[in-house]
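Workshop exercise sheet. Pairs work together: one partner reads the sequence aloud, the other fills in the structure field after running the prediction. Swap roles for the next sheet.
Pair: D.N. / O.F.
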Amino acid sequence: MSDTKWTSAEMPDQSGRTVVVTGANSGIGSEATRAFAGAGAHVVMACRSTERGADARDEISDEYPGASLTVRELDLADLDSVAAFADWFETEFDALHVLANNAGVMAIPRSETADGFETQFGVNHLGHYALTARLLGVLRRSSGESRVVTQSSGVHERGRIDFTDLQSTESYDKWGAYAQSKLANVLFAYELDRRLRAANASVTSVACHPGYADTNLQFRGPEAEGSQLRLLAMKAANAVFGQSAERGAWPLLYAAAHPDVDGGEYVGPGGFLNMRGHPEPQESSDRSHDASTARHLWDVSADLTGVSFDLPTSDDAA
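Structure field:
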């Protein structure tokens, strides 16, 4: 199954469907929101800054006057915020057809979340793990198939899960921590799909990556460090190598909406070095398929967040 020239214009009609996009106020999240809304979905824009979320909502509404959009605060660096968002969503909505775990931080100086986790691991993985667990009930109650799409990165191929120092308290390398968090995203997506299969659930879990997209994500690390030289270098790299945020959103949209995508797949751009181009199913790293590591990460994530899934173990999968 491969559509060599697939674009968001080929998305099936999304009318009557409800979608949550994390990090929806800018970059890939904003572009994914635009595409879902343009195809008729109601999109809940889950944003750390509701002010920036409202600005993005207004911009999309200018393009699609009938767009159905809700902005709601979600800070993935705070598990209380994750719980509050999930409680609100289940009160307001009786269905969730796509959960797009898209938000993230990249290569920033070491800091900690409100719950004491290293920020990249806490936001990119643990926050989304807890959010997915808390929304699993409404995902399973939705009519038809629902999908959880977790955004990773090609950098996951360099990642290793260091269970002896998950929070990088003994040693911190900003790119190493980022790669670990992105490998965790793929391990989580695959383990979730195995457990959903064991439960015979009408929910599938898919991983994706955007390639090299020209977004503000690359600028946050240099800005946090106050490095103008690195900031200029990142802007130059984005201009030379990056594809647009719109195209960077294509793999997420393909993973979320293509009728032939199956659970446990990994979608990314199929062009130059998998950094740009039209989306296609791809192979993730060998480490991402290590089921033993995935189960261990799952158990550790449950212990750290205090949130668990009402699902059988992946050992029970057919």
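Discussion prompt: DSSP finds ten helices and eight strands in the chain. What would you look at next?
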